[in-house]
Amino acid sequence: MPVSISTTASLYDRVRRVIPPIEWPAFSDDIDAILALKRERNAVILAHNYQTPEIFHCVADIVGDSLALARKAMTVDADIIVLAGVHFMAETAKLLNPGKTVLIPDLGAGCSLADSITASDVRLMRQRYPGVPVVTYVNTSAAVKAESDICCTSGNALAVVESLGTPRAIMLPDEYLARNIAAQTKIEIIAWKGHCEVHERFTPADIRELREAHPGVTVLAHPECPPEVVAEADFAGSTAAMSDYVGRHKPARVVLMTECSMSDNVAVEHPDVDFVRPCNLCPHMKRITLANIRAALQQNRHVVTIDPDVADRARRAVERMLAV
Question: pTM of the entire structure?
Answer without folding.
Answer: 0.92
